[in-house]
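Sample intake sheet
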Amino acid sequence: MSNPFTVTAQDTFGNTATSYAGSVHFTSSDALATLPADYAFVAGDNGTHGFDATFGTAGAQSLTATDTTTSSITGTQSGIVVKTQYTITASVNGSNGTLSPTSQTIDEGTTATVTMFPAGGYHPTIDPSTTCTGGTLVGNSWSSSTISADCTLIIAFAANPLPSFAITIDD
């Protein structure tokens, strides 16, 4: 997941250095991070510019911006907590209904919800080939248990049972 952040050039008094025109290079404690390319500040930045970084390793990480000419001009944000993320993929086995969302990415230790939209006369059931374990299907909504791995939710739509009738004849 992309994480926005802002680099603000500051003078020795902590004020924004609105005329900063240097270039910055980015590094991270996360060897798997996708970082922005070096960036040359322009007058329109007024000493502040936004970027995006994507971390690839769970745990506490840091991100550093360093001036490419004067390495003593640097700033580091540490203690960035990166959570492992998992994908829940949901699909329909057969027809007679749809569901939403069909894919979602969630943080480890959280839960997810999928809503089903059965055609008239049908109701959702969990297909035995589902790999998401411990979830609960109530009505037209499935809620996961705490997620700790990628998984697939497969829903089938079964015909509602026909109502039964009793006929009584009095003579």
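Comment: The two ends are 75 Å apart (CA to CA). The longest strand covers residues 59-67.
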